[in-house]
Design goal:
The complex is a heterodimer of chains A (127) and B (93). Chain A has 127 residues and is α+β, with helices and mostly antiparallel strands. Chain A is built from 1 helix and 6 strands; from the N terminus they run ββββββα. Chain A is 22% helix and 38% strand. Chain A has a 6-stranded mixed sheet with strand order 5-1-2-3-4-6. By secondary structure, chain B is α+β, with helices and mostly antiparallel strands. In chain B, strands 4-3-2-1-5 form a 5-stranded antiparallel sheet. The relative contact order of chain B is 0.23. Classes of the chains: A alpha+beta (127), B alpha+beta (93). Strand 5 of chain A pairs antiparallel with strand 4 of chain B.
């Protein structure tokens, strides 16, 4: 991201987001929330007071991470969290890390089962 | 550089960006850069019940490498100018 030239054009820069609370979505699906302290042209970012927010259905859990550096190639999206609005819908319930891990496993097993069932049905070739 | 210039013309228009992780976000194009990174304002996730964590995000930066599609308004572009620019680029490149 160059600073030179293009004076009359709003260049894409993360400078406006410095010291702001941001949501970073990664390629592996993780959602990391933290305060942006630094960035570079590859979208590598440094987040302070970072936490990972895991959501499974109506349940959510925040795992504290501390000071985090994220390599830019893993970044999908960096969103500015509007402090005036609710970060999550009010129906969502906060649970402990153990409970969220159980919920994640249950969801993964359900998806795998669905995949297995579908493969079996396709094999039968009912259509 | 052609698509960079093309997106610059679309700044201020409402677009829908579909990402490689299937997330689709609509918003007003605020800015774009040489890597085709996109900054959107007034963002709204297309299927917001599936992505509750995006509820309070109104502005976002999207890394160019994760974009699958950018859906544009039908009157968003002058096709003739685009054709001419493409021909020029093809000749010069």
């Amino acid at each position: 991201m160059s600073w030179a030239g293009l004076d009359n054009f709003p260049a894409t820069s993360l400078a406006d987001n410095l010291d702001k609370k941001l949501l970073v979505i990664l390629r592996d699906g993780k959602k990391i929330i933290g305060i942006l302290r630094s960035f570079d042209q590859f979208a590598n970012v440094v987040l302070e007071g970072a936490l990972e927010r895991i959501t499974v259905g109506e349940l959510y859990c925040d795992l504290p991470l501390g000071l985090y550096i994220i390599r830019g190639e893993n970044v999908v999206l960096i969103g500015e969290l509007d402090l005036g609005r609710e970060e999550l819908p009010s129906f969502m319930v906060r649970v402990t890390p153990t409970e969220i891990k159980q919920a994640q496993k249950a969801e993964k097993d359900a998806t795998e089962l669905k995949g297995t069932m579908r493969k079996r049905m396709e094999f039968l070739d009912l259509e | 550089m052609l698509f960079f210039s093309y997106f610059k013309e679309l700044v201020g228009k409402e677009v829908i960006v579909e990402l490689k992780n299937d997330l689709a976000i609509s918003g007003i194009l605020h800015s774009v850069d040489q890597y085709l990174n996109i900054k959107l304002e007034n963002t709204r996730v297309v299927d917001d019940t599936k992505y509750p964590h995006m509820l309070s995000v109104k502005n976002c930066f999207i890394r160019g490498s994760v974009v699958r599609y950018v859906q544009l308004p039908p009157d968003g572009v002058d096709v003739d100018i685009l054709h001419d620019a493409t021909r020029r680029e093809a000749r010069g490149g």
